[in-house]
Amino acid sequence: MTVDASAPQQGTADPAATSVLTLGWARRWARRVRDAHPAALVLGAAVVIWIATFAFLVVRRHDRFWDTDFDMGIHDQALWLLARGRGFVTVRGLQAFGHHATPGYFLLAPASWLGAGPNFLNLVQVTVLALGAFPVYLIARARGVAPWACAALGTAFLLHPALQFFAWELFHPEVIAITPLLCAYLCATRRSWRWFAVWAVLAVAWKEDVALAVIVLGLIIAWRGDRRVGLATAGLALVWFVAVTFIVMPAINGGVLQSEGIYSGVGGSAGGIVDTALSDPGRITPRVFGSESGAFAWKLLLPFGLVPLLAPVVLLIGLPQFLIDVLSDVPWTRMITFHYAALPFTALTIGMVEGVAFLGRRLGPPARIAAPLVVLVFAIFGTIAWGPSPVGAEYRKGWWPPAEDTRLAAKQAAIEAVPEGASVSASYTLVPHLTHRAEIYSFPNPWRPANWGVPGSPSRSPKRVDWIVIDRQTLGSEQQLLAGILRRGNFRVVLDRDDLIVARRVHG
């Protein structure tokens, strides 16, 4: 029997066929771009500029050691561990899914196998955030808004200072959920239920809190007439939220939900908060209606020209997370600079589009032109007044690293001195550069528990640590602890340069 060498063998790809398929795919996309409205192309250019700008800034932030253990170190180690069948995140002192329910990590596992780290995660986040401008455009088109007005709304989305700060804060799973949620809402407007299910599941995969937004979205869909789909969506999202929040995570953490500590002032647990609201509402109302909460809402609303207020129903999508944010004991959950604002921001983005469409329907052609222009003008004001982009007033106020760092070479040398896979305790600014290992602790852990686990979590023995990598300029009160560790002679200093110190264990 002879074999024709020119014929493709079984189980191998035909190069010619592959070339034809690739060429056909390229031609289809070229045709789509050629046929696209100029407004969509302009928005596409704005997306590319946004990605390029913030990709440069976030990479420089990591490379210049301006990210920290919480939360960049947590997420990068969690992904690295899960991609290798492990789960205990030593940066946080918790199992990965005891910290948050984020099965979306597994979507990034193949990149981790190839060596991807913080820069990859941050670039993925920047890209996904910017791509959210396209579902904004398409939702507006589905609501009858003119193409150039749709492009203006997509651009306003990119200009919002909260979106830019989400990029600045670096990788956070719930921030990744913004674009899938927008896509899910788009599919709901088109009644494309299979794709709606895909996007909704993808959104919920990034954090348990996202399920609260999907529950409300399902109820809105039911209220608009698609009861079966809407109630099924709300029911499944509710089951997921209850299961992971009140059963799975407490079971992993020994009966404790790791976030309860920042709600102790209003009862701690969900049941405690409800009890406080019924028995002592005076502890609740000042937080909901206080000045911090008002400033938080104002800075979210104003860059969209307050137009989202014209679509109050869709704003309910972000209400559960907004209440969670304003009820906490800590101020950073009520700032547009952090990921806690992601779900309220998503709801306001949808409200912006629905509000503009509403004005166009009610007030006619003049409003169809004026409303998106007003939103765009307010977005420009917001990005200049509050945004961290190069055109924003906040750009040079310490959010990004300076162009020069005289200690950069010493920091890099300190990281390079540590062998691959060795167990390490490091300063919080150095942790994200050392996370691809089973044990990386944020000093003073494990000698002295700090931001470790949940109340009652067992600490680990310092004997597990073989290397110490410390930036003395970040130590504060731990200076004496470090001096004592080195004085006992169990570690030998191998690098001491520009306040960077690296020591290796030599005795038990």
Q: How is this structure best summarized?
A:
With 508 residues, this protein is mainly alpha-helical.
SS content category: mainly alpha
| Terminal CA distance | 69 Å
Which strand-content bin applies to the residues? 5-15%
Mean pLDDT: 94
- Give Rg in angstroms: 25 Å
Q: State the strand order across the main sheet.
A: 4-3-5-7-6
Give the helix level as a range of percent. 55-70%
Notable characteristics:
508 residues; mainly alpha; 2 domains; 5-stranded mixed beta sheet; two-stranded antiparallel sheet; 57% helix; 6% strand; disordered N terminus
Characterization of the model:
- This protein has 508 residues and is mostly helical.
- The chain folds into two domains: 35-66 and 117-258 and 290-399, no CATH class; 408-505, no CATH class.
- Helices cover 57% and strands 6% of the residues.
- The chain has helices at 15-35, 38-63, 69-82, 96-99, 109-113, 118-131, 133-142, 147-159, 161-168, 173-176, 178-190, 193-204, 210-223, 227-252, 270-279, 285-289, 291-301, 312-315, 319-327, 342-363, 365-386, 395-399, 408-416, 479-487, and strands at residues 88-89, 94-95, 424-426, 440-442, 467-471, 491-497, 500-505.
- It has a five-stranded mixed β-sheet, sandwiched between helices. Strands 1-2 form a two-stranded antiparallel ribbon.
- A hairpin with a 2-residue loop joins strand 6 (491-497) and strand 7.
- Helix 11 runs antiparallel to helix 12 (193-204).
- The protein is globular and about 80 Å long.
- The relative contact order is 0.11.
- Mean pLDDT is 94; it is low at 1-13.
